[in-house]
Amino acid sequence: MPLTVRPRRKRSSRIIVTLLSGLLPVVLGSAILYIQAERTLQQSALQTAEQALHQFELMLDNTAQAARELLPLAGKTCEAVKLALREQVTRRPFVRSTNLVWDDNLYCSSLFGDFKEAVNAGDYTQGKLWLMNGNPVTPNTALLVYRLSDGRGGALTTLDGYHLSNILRLIGRDTLLLLQVGNNWLSADGTVHQGRLPTLPVAQSKLDSSHYAFSVAAGFAQGETWRYMADEYPPLFSLLMFFGVVSAAIGHVLQKRSTSPSHEMLRALEAGEFIPYFQPVVHGDSKRWSGAEVLMRWNHPKEGLVRPDLFIPFAEHSGLIVPMTRALMQQTATLLGPLSATFVTPFHLGINITASHCQDLALVDDCRKLLAAFTPGSINLVLELTERQLIEPTDITRQLFAQLHELGVMIAIDDFGTGHSSLGYLRKFNVDFLKIDQSFVAMIGVDALSRHILDTIIELSAKLDLGIVAEGVETQAQADYLTAHNVNFLQGYLFGKPMAAADFISALSHH
Ligand code: C2E
Ligand code: CA
Ligand code: CA
Q: Would you say domain 261-508 falls under CATH 3.20.20.450?
């Protein structure tokens, strides 16, 4: 059946589309969250670097102050300045040792008093700062030396690496924080490394001090962005999942709708797949062709020719039956209209109409257009209304039928004998023909009761002066019986099956 085959065939692609529509918000949302997390980490790294930089500058201010106070003493004997050197160590919280230099020689130290060691200004970054990995007193312990010189004299004050690595650890916490001085750098574990500062994998921020020759780098370890998202965003992820499910559901429903029978039929209507077939109707006495009933077929691109009882109910349900019938009437006009001058007149043209087509006056216009395509007076247009679906009499329908009759359009009750139309009903709508349902015709010579009903219908129509058409005539015996009972028109396989327009037109020329 054409209306269900299509969705089934595309099941896999439907699943894929559903999955994709579910994944889309999750993927997009995750990407946005990832960017957001990266930004947050970037900000956090920058802040941490700023704080560390500020702290180091404060410490160095302290150390530099000691050097400034001691510099004027350079050149004096160690004995004379020894106390002053120690006093600075005691007074200043971050200063670990103080030393005086004369002519590039360290000659007095707060720790040892008299001392002798060459000082190389080249060891100091910008001549000012040297990050050392310990000295002879405390090897392998970081030490930051501040150098201040003026002429031949100089002062060296040292800052304990312990304070520095403490800052790296405490301010850093989740952040990787490094202090760089020249070609050496200090990590949070207190180790001094030589060489280039390593690149921090995530959200690296590097700040140079504007006062001293050092810089600070902050950043995060590999994979920190995902870890951060996993820690901070679970509620947002739940929301994304929710959106994903909703979106998948919407995608699923929309696809179902897009392959629903009415959608598929609308597509077919636009593609002109509903075409007319013509079944000859013959005169009861002469058996000459008197016209045809137009029967709809769906010329489905994959399913082939589809019988009307498989799709007409869907068409009626969706309301598409009206435009479908209209399209059928237009095609009939185009196909048969040009031949109408050659018709043995009047040509009986039966069109099946549903009740929904009778709810406004548009049907009058449809019939007018159809008639306009034929030579005037060449056809008897007969609208067939099935007895199973009777029309409620209203002002509109009364008007409709009056206008149809004015146009010369006739009304037939189709499938007569299977529904409940009353005599009053037949009169009210000015019915012109009764079409005896094929089930009664099939019972001729088989079932006495059915034949009795058939006889009654024929009698009734004669009394009401209604034309009568018997359909479903398949055997000569049935034809003979109906002719003997003066049935005006016969229709059935005995005379011709419903056929495509080209076949019908060529057969028509032989009759
Ligand atoms: P219907 O209006 O009663 O049409 C007569 C049906 O009987 C047609 O079936 C026809 O092919 C079939 N038939 C004709 N002669 C014989 C025969 O000797 N023996 C047998 N067994 N059957 C015969 P079809 O074409 O399949 O149409 C079925 C029904 O679909 C029609 O019944 C009609 O109710 C509906 N239909 C067809 N075309 C249209 C249309 O354009 N609009 C509407 N609303 N309904 C249509
Ligand atoms: Ca019919
Ligand atoms: Ca019928």
A: yes
